Amino acid sequence: MGKMVRTVIADALRRSDFGAEINVKGWVRTKRGNKNVSFIALNDGSTINNIQVVADIEKFGDDYLKPITTGACISVTGTLVESPAQGQSVEVHAEAIEIYGTADPATYPLQKKGHTLEFLREIAHLRPRTNTFGAIFRIRHNMAMAIHTYFHERGYFYFHTPLITASDCEGAGQMFQVTTLNLYDLKKGEDGKIDYSDDFFGKQASLTVSGQLEGELAALSLGKIYTFGPTFRAENSNTPRHLAEFWMIEPEVAFNEIEENMDLAQDFIQYCVRWALEKCQDDVAFLCKMYDNELIDRLKFVVDNDFKRLTYTEGIEILKEAIAQGKKFEFPVDWGTDLQSEHERYLVEEHFKRPVILTDYPKEIKSFYMKQNEDGKTVRAMDVLFPKIGEIIGGSQREEDYEKLKTRAKEMGVPDKDIWWYLDTRRFGTAPHSGFGLGFERLMLFVTGMQNIRDVIPFPRTPKNAEF
Ligand code: 4AD
Ligand code: MG
Description:
There is one protein chain. By secondary structure, this protein is α+β, with helices and mostly antiparallel strands. The chain has helices at about 10, 55-60, 60-65, 115-120, 130-155, 210-220, 260-280, 280-290, 295-305, 310-325, 340-350, 400-410, 415-425, 440-450, and strands at about 20-35, 35-45, 50-55, 75-80, 90-100, 155-160, 165, 175-180, 205, 225-230, 245-255, 310, 355-360, 380-385, 390-395, 435-440. A hairpin with a 3-residue loop joins strand 1 (about 20-35) and strand 2 (about 35-45). The radius of gyration is 27 Å and the shape is elongated. It binds 4-amino-1,4-dioxobutan-2-aminium adenosine-5'-monophosphate and magnesium ion. 4-amino-1,4-dioxobutan-2-aminium adenosine-5'-monophosphate binds near residues 242 and 243. Its main location: cytoplasm. Belongs to the class-II aminoacyl-tRNA synthetase family. It is found in: Cytoplasm. One of its GO terms (molecular function) is nucleic acid binding. This is Asparagine--tRNA ligase.
């Protein structure tokens, strides 16, 4: 038999030209059988479904088939046959099998038995070969495609903002420094502060926490833009919802006010979730069956229902009322303090039983760039809160007034010299505009039903962990 063009298994499983000669390549999931035939379940990552390879033992010889164990990589050429077995449409009756690589059963960690997600995190280099992580990473790809498609089809431009920056967008001081200075021999000025003039950029630089500030410049020229890239936060919070390196999608739209920003947030998330339901059916169904029986219902619910909109102040009243009725929270509820995840989840999961958009937060707990309301106390912020996740989106209408923005930046300790270029947009042709940031891995948590953010990104970066 000559060398044949490979058919990916996702395509092979859809074929019905039985009798045709076919070549498939992939990694062995299991091998079982009897003294006459071996059944090899083969997977190449194109789909969660395996193709069954039937190998006649007499034809190949026991010794030849022996090293084909779980994890081995093989190429199989044979005949496509309608499968008599339940739950699979086709199988391949092997004519020739080439072994690319064996996987010693004594040391290959992914044997047939189920592994815990914790264990699989320790072998992140191999976990994409499991059903679970194959499904998750195919869905992750699909969500990225959904995001680009959504914005592209609506006239948004994908705008690339820098990852290295000298300004702290969120003003939260959670940045990773970028330096080429010799840390063993730091030059300090008379005031004892580090002298950055010799550093690579001639000043202190960091990895960005958000592309928003540059995104706003783009919106005030191109009209509608979005960013989609990695962001970095050195917050030392070891939680199932925080990463030190995560991906964020940040649309920014000139002339949008807060209501239109909320409309966009809802429509955008619903579009992505619908994409997962329609285009990742096998993978979502697998995760639903294995990890979270309510996953598909929850996804459908979000697609079909409007998000509840209310102000932070109204949210606080509801929480206080709940406490009065006997509800216990770990953290106190007071107007002016940030909501804890338990408060957010109460509103979403118990009170409204649907996604919630909270607006008009106290200005003290939000960033300097948010548009100030007339009341002098609140800003036009919006957080989208999701079942099981808590905050999935943070955004706002932006302060477009030069003097108000400058004053607020100063009050919040953001130096003019770092953001003069940002302030310039308010001096020259300023306009109302709004935007938000969606945490990509938070979206992934929602569509996969996974509980830990470390399981929805291939190589998670968290405090004390940068392996792989
Ligand atoms: O609410 P955040 O901090 O908002 C911003 O960064 C704005 N500049 C966005 C904008 O208006 N353009 O972050 C936005 C979202 C959060 O709602 C959350 O989903 C996600 O980013 N996020 C994280 N995801 C994983 N790990 C972390 N450490 C995260 N911090 C924020
Ligand atoms: Mg936020």
